[in-house]
């Protein structure tokens, strides 16, 4: 567990889709004994109860993840939408969560097609998550891209299906000073994401806002949420360097 004690450094931007009645994305963060957890949830649909579910799931996941890791955090989120009369609840969504770990890396847990990217010191971006979608399943089976992409909107897992499909988990590369979490409304290519992050290495809020703006300009019609967080170890190192320069 990282031992940084200062307030977490992150930026987050979220925008409602142009033809949607409300934004059903949600995000949250929590720190427990110096361990930072960050979460993005993409609610399925735009109904009021879906938006409420997304907010509750994000908060629950962040609080549990900061204590017990992102996979268990996501599992606990499933309890926010369980319905004993319906194995697949009506209020549902996809999710990604990450926790900052001692040594400069992150643990990530996800269900569905929300995304996590590792950002290195040079601003290069590497995708951590694999989409749990029919489109990705077709790619993995060798189908051509023009066929697979037509099915990218079909999710094969979600918070409400965790009891059937489970939760995936993965660690970032060993030295990952920043992490980016986003809903699937962030449709930009990896190099487009990296270009914006490189231009704003010390301003995560501006970076997140510009990524949302760029995705909208590129044609995304969905709700878009982007969260960019600095690893507390990196934050601590930068503050020590700044202190030494004074």
Q: Which structural class do the helices and strands define?
A: alpha+beta
User: Helix count, per DSSP?
Assistant: 8
The major beta sheet can be summarized as: 5 strands, antiparallel
- Report the uncertain regions: none
Strand share of the residues?
Answer: 25-35%
SSE string, helices as H and strands as E: EEEHHEEEEHHHEEHHEH
CATH architecture: 4-Layer Sandwich
Classified by CATH, the class is Alpha Beta
**How large is the radius of gyration?**
17 Å
The residue fraction in helices comes out at: 25-40%
CATH fold annotation: Phosphatase 2c, domain 1
Going across the biggest sheet, name each strand in turn.
1-10-9-6-7
Task: Give the tally of β-strands.
Answer: 10
Give the overall form. globular
In round numbers, the mean pLDDT is 93
Distance between the termini: 29 Å
Q: How many domain regions?
A: 1
């Amino acid at each position: 567990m990282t031992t940084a004690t200062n307030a977490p450094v992150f930026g987050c931007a979220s925008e409602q889709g142009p033809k949607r009645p409300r934004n059903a994305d949600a995000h949250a963060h929590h720190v427990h004994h110096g361990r930072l957890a960050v979460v993005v949830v993409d609610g399925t649909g735009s109904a009021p109860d879906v938006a409420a579910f997304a907010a509750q799931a994000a908060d629950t996941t962040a609080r549990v993840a900061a204590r017990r890791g992102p996979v268990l955090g996501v599992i606990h989120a499933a309890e926010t939408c369980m319905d004993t009369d319906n194995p697949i609840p009506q209020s549902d969504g996809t999710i990604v969560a990450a926790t900052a770990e001692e040594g400069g890396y992150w643990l990530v847990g996800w269900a569905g097609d929300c995304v996590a990217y590792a950002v290195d010191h040079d601003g290069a971006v590497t995708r951590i998550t694999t989409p749990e979608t029919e489109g990705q399943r077709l790619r993995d089976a060798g189908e051509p891209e023009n066929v697979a992409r037509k099915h990218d909107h079909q999710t094969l897992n979600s918070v409400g299906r965790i009891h059937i499909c489970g939760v995936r988990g993965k660690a970032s590369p060993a030295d990952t000073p920043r992490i980016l979490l986003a809903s699937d409304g962030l449709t930009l290519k990896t190099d487009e994401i990296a270009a914006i992050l490189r231009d704003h290495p010390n301003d995560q809020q501006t970076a997140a806002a510009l990524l949302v703006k760029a995705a909208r300009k590129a044609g995304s019609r969905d709700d878009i949420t982007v969260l960019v967080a600095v690893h507390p170890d990196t934050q601590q190192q930068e503050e020590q360097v700044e202190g030494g320069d004074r």
